[in-house]
Amino acid sequence: MADLLLHSYWRATAPYRVRIGLCLKGLAFDYAPVNLLKNEQGAAPYRDSYNRQALVPSLTADGQVLTQSLAILEWLDETHPQPPLLPGSPRDRAIVRAMAEIVACDIHPLNNLRVLKALAELGHAQGGEDQQAWGRRWITDGFTALEPMVAEHGRGFAFGDTPTLADCALIPQIWSSSRFAVDMGPFPALAAVAARAADHPAFQAAHPDRQPDKPAA
Fold first, then answer.
1. Comparing C-alpha atoms, which of 47, 48, 50, 49 is closest to residue 39?
2. CATH assignment, 4-83
């Protein structure tokens, strides 16, 4: 088994996805915190040695560095096939990937820290109502697309009755949505998946509250 080192920040959703995948696979890993609020991701040695985009996560496996959460999760699935994160048929894999990409490509990039900082530079105060409305808009749009997909294909989790790549992406985004005061009432299928995941040991272990770099209350 590869020696695994995950560079992560406790409340960032992209490394949260990877933590879920690692925990679902039952893989031990070392945790290296990267404080995004202190811009540790944009400074040496992290930026130069682990992620040229100055983003988290990065996963080091036997000295080789991997970046981008969905790519890391697919690598995990290819190198540690059990339990699988993708279903068996090409059609079903495409549906699961589409669910994950709605989160990772269409929702998350518009409400992550660097975009919010850019909005602040344009006069929309950090954490202010403009930023809250911005985040709610894009999260709500994405959840509106995901809700009927999960309602059709989910049987406890987002696709079927076992966790997949879709859940690795969805659960962190649902957790993060509370920061933007997103109303989950219109999304009962998504809320049901979150409730199911809350009882699963892998999702519990990956939760932001259980990470070593979470600040003391």
1. 47
2. 3.40.30.10
